[in-house]
Amino acid sequence: MDVNYHNFDLNLYKVFVTVAGTKSISKAAELLYVSQPAVSYSIKTLEEALGGKLFFRTPKGVELTPEAEKLYDSVKNSYRYLAVGEKLFMEDKKLSTGDLYVRL
Questions:
Q1: Can you give the CATH number for the domain in which 20 is found?
Q2: Rounded distance, CA 93 to CA 49, Å?
Q3: Sequence-ordered list of residues with C-beta below 8 angstroms from that of 49, at least 6 positions apart, any chain
Q4: How far apart are CA 25 and CA 8, in angstroms?
Q5: Is residue 4 part of a domain?
Q6: What is the model's pLDDT at position 3?
Q7: What is the number of other CB atoms lying within 10 angstroms of the CB of residue 28?
Q8: Where in the sequence is the domain holding 30, given as residue range(s)?
Q9: Higher confidence at residue 96 or residue 24?
Q10: Residue 85 CB-density burial (10 A; 0-12 exposed, 13-18 middle, 19+ buried)
Q11: Looking at the predicted structure, is the pLDDT value of residue 5 above 70?
């Protein structure tokens, strides 16, 4: 399956980042308030879309594949940028920060 870079599901990446960060499907499920099968299905869907494995399953949880480590770094940074942008938007909306323009 080809990846359409202009139409991908951010929720799949949110699940991916959470699983990678916790190294556990069950812990990720708890943090995301969804079931473990839902997390596993999201990972499987993303793996199919990307055409490769993202995690090695281990007795202690999961570990990123070498290819997925690069993806994780990129996606994790992208989510940080989204969070910063959202925070700035909300602050401007509340008039906590921003610029005031007066037209003469």
A1: 1.10.10.10
A2: 37
A3: 1, 3, 8, 12
A4: 22
A5: no
A6: 55
A7: 26
A8: 10-93
A9: 24
A10: exposed
A11: no
Q: Which two tokens stand for residue 81?
A: 């940028």
The single-letter code of the amino acid at 62 is: V
Burial environment of residue 42 by CB neighbours within 10 A (0 to 12, 13 to 18, 19 or more): buried
- Of residues 55 and 9, more confidently modeled: 55
Q: Looking at 1-104, which runs of residues are DSSP E strands?
A: 55-58, 61-64
Asked, for residue 60, whether it belongs to a domain, the answer is: yes
* Angle of CA points 65, 18, 26, to nearest 5°: 90
**49-99 tens-digit pLDDT:** 999 999 999 999 999 999 999 999 999 998 888 888 888 888 877 776 666
Distance CA 10, CA 7 (A): 9
Answer whether residue 100 is part of any domain.
Answer: no
* 60 residue type, one letter: K
pLDDT score recorded for residue 37: 97
Residue with tokens 């323009």: 101
What does the pLDDT read at residue 100?
Answer: 65
